[in-house]
Specification:
By secondary structure, the chain is an alpha+beta fold. Helix content is about 35%, strand content about 25%. The chain folds into two domains: about 140 residues, PurM-like, N-terminal domain (60s Ribosomal Protein L30, Chain: A); about 170 residues, Alpha-Beta Complex (Phosphoribosyl-aminoimidazole Synthetase, Chain A, domain 2), CATH 3.90.650.10. The chain starts with a helix and ends in a 14-residue tail after the last strand.
Length: about 325
């Protein structure tokens, strides 16, 4: 089918958001902002860089690219509303495969009552997908990396390193514990953005949040830099799945720190509000762990320190960097 037939085939038959005036089928979409602030984010995934057909079915590619964007909205405590998809389609992709890709996005979008309101399709040499998401947040309620203060508790949701473990299983296979392997594969292919948990933090006056897309080492440094504080992490308190240690004893710690693509949240909150965070986690069915603290800067520049076996070392940004040069 040609571009117009394809667009027509993925055009929603109805819309969920009452603020939408005009969706797909015109030159641009129109929505009428409410009395809330508008939050937007965009992520691009390229075949051979962010995913491979060896490890991902079309459905999973679509699901994960939208999940990555939803994790960004979660870090801002924003309610998802709309998404737009621009896709570069190479030769060899069938109509059925493309529909499966969009089906992955649509299934996740329907759970959050999001509407597809536009995008673009062009042909090219490799598959590339850019998804833009739009959400709403109550005025003065958006969460920023710059909101951490000395004395805060540092916490993380879920378990860390699972996605990287899932990638390892998909690439090399293990055949040791089928149940564990399937768990890690699912965590890699269909991550669960922590939107509900983040939205439920609305009663807490100040919370710094960052989504763990490139590894907690990277994200903790971003919070430290934005807030002009030091972040101290306790290696023994970082949450992980026990099966990961059993299957990958030599690399599980590295993956916890910088494996990336877990799409969990790392945050900082005042000590007095920590019990509330724990209650919210229990209510929303999310595991939350205290992993460290925020302290006043020891040096002239913000820093992240990792404590392990009675020793303290500087933890630099070690997650995935998209523009890293060869040899770095």
């Amino acid at each position: 089918m040609d571009e117009w037939q394809f667009i027509k085939s993925i055009q929603p038959s109805y819309y969920r958001q009452s603020t939408l005036i005009k969706g797909v089928s015109d030159d641009a979409a129109v929505f009428r902002p409410t009395d809330k602030d508008v939050v937007t984010a965009v992520d691009t995934m390229v075949e051979g860089v962010h995913f491979s057909r060896k490890t991902m079915e079309p459905y999973h590619i679509g699901y994960r690219v939208l999940a990555a964007n939803l994790s960004d909205l979660a870090a801002m405590a924003s309610t998802p509303a709309f998404y737009l998809v621009s896709i570069v389609i190479p030769e060899g992709w069938s109509e059925l495969e493309l529909k499966e890709l969009y089906s992955g996005m649509q299934d996740l979008a329907s759970f959050y009552k999001m509407d597809l309101i536009g995008g673009d399709t062009v042909s090219g040499s490799e598959l590339s997908i850019s998804v833009t998401v739009i959400g709403y947040v109550e005025k003065e309620k958006a969460r920023y990396r710059s909101q951490a203060e000395p004395g805060d508790i540092v916490f993380a949701t879920g378990t860390l390193g699972d996605s990287r473990a899932g990638l390892e299983v998909l690439l090399n296979g293990l055949s040791k514990e089928v149940a564990s392997e399937e768990f890690f594969i699912e965590r890699h292919r269909t991550p669960d953005p922590r939107v509900s948990f983040a939205l439920a933090l609305d009663k807490i006056p100040r919370t710094a949040l960052n989504d763990i897309s490139d590894g907690v080492a990277n994200e903790a440094n971003e919070i430290a830099e934005a807030s002009c504080v030091d972040v101290h992490l306790d290696m023994d308190k970082l949450p992980f799945t026990s099966a990961m240690k059993e299957l990958f004893p030599d690399t599980y710690k590295e993956w916890m720190l910088s494996g990336g693509e877990d799409f969990e949240l790392v945050g900082a909150v005042e000590k007095s509000w920590w019990p509330t965070v724990q209650q919210i986690a229990e209510k929303t069915g999310v595991k939350v762990s205290k992993i460290g603290s925020v302290q006043t800067m020891e040096r002239k520049e913000p820093c992240v320190y990792l404590h392990e076996d009675g020793k303290k070392k500087v933890l630099t940004k070690s997650g995935y960097t998209h523009l890293k040069k060869k040899g770095e």
